[in-house]
Design brief:
There is one protein chain. The chain has about 240 residues and is an alpha/beta fold. It has one domain. The chain has helices spanning about 5-15, 20-30, 70-80, 90-95, 110, 115-140, 165-170, 170-195, 215-235, and strands spanning about 1-5, 40-45, 50-55, 80-85. The protein has a 4-stranded mixed beta sheet. The longest helix has 27 residues, at about 115-140. Zinc ion (ZN) binds near residues 133, 173 and 176. The site of zinc ion (ZN) has 4 residues, from helix 6 and helix 8.
């Protein structure tokens, strides 16, 4: 059960050029089977330092505005739910920034997404990348809700040198960001399909890279092959 806070999204971010229904659909399609516990995703204007946060909420009695009663019931029976907050400042930035596709920030989004995909719906790509990062934190602790022993499925294949200092500082951050680089582009592609603008895109297209990012391309391709093998093993 993955729920977006439709009420708050409509109120505060309804004007944004992102199809939230399509975002909801691709996130559910991607993570529905991977997570046991319920997930609530909500924009939050009080989150100032981070672009997004994830935490486990055990006090399921305290309802967040916009949360459906059925979500509360499910969370109570499961023992906890995952709360993912997307910072309002980040959502607004993604919406405003026309230069995201070429901007080389800490996330290095241009290095891991097809340029064509970013050109038309770059802001949706950034939101999906952020969600993918936070969702991986949910995956890491989904079984127990405990931070003590995290399931870090992408950590072993991630090359630390390809990540900024922030992600290198903690294993779970590196794992989450490596997962975002894998699932983000996949979800952006699914987003295009969902809004009726399907594109022909996969990681094997040599045309998507030039020599300057050939190294990253090869590394991400390895990671892609690894995750694909894993998916096949899990029968997906
Ligand atoms: Zn993180």
């Amino acid at each position: 059960m993955i729920r977006f806070n439709d009420l708050v999204i409509k109120e505060k971010f309804g004007h944004i050029k992102i199809d939230w229904k399509a975002i909801d659909k691709v996130v559910n399609d991607t993570y529905g089977d991977r997570l046991d516990k319920p997930v609530f995703i909500t924009p939050d204007n009080r989150t100032k330092t981070y672009a997004g946060t994830h935490r486990v909420v055990r006090n399921t009695v305290k309802r967040i505005r916009g949360m459906e009663p059925s979500f509360m019931v499910k969370s109570k029976s499961e023992g906890f739910y995952h709360l993912i907050k997307l910072a309002g400042h980040a959502i607004n930035f993604f919406n405003r920034a026309k230069d995201i596709p070429t901007r080389n920030d800490g996330w290095r989004i241009p290095d891991f997404y097809d340029t064509e995909l970013l050109e038309k719906h770059g802001s949706a790509g950034c939101i999906l990348h952020l969600i993918a990062h936070e969702m991986q934190h949910a995956v890491q602790v989904d079984e127990t809700g405990s931070n003590k022993q995290r399931n870090l499925e992408f950590f072993s294949t991630a090359k630390p040198s390809e990540f900024s200092k922030y992600y290198r500082a903690k294993k779970e951050e590196l794992d989450a960001e490596a997962a975002a680089r894998f699932y983000g582009p996949k979800m952006l592609k699914a987003y295009y399909e969902e809004i009726g603008e399907p594109v022909d895109f996969n990681f094997d297209q040599d045309s998507i890279v030039d020599d300057t990012n050939k190294k990253e391309y090869n590394q991400i391709k390895d990671m892609y092959a690894f995750a694909l093998k894993k998916e096949l093993k899990n029968g997906k």
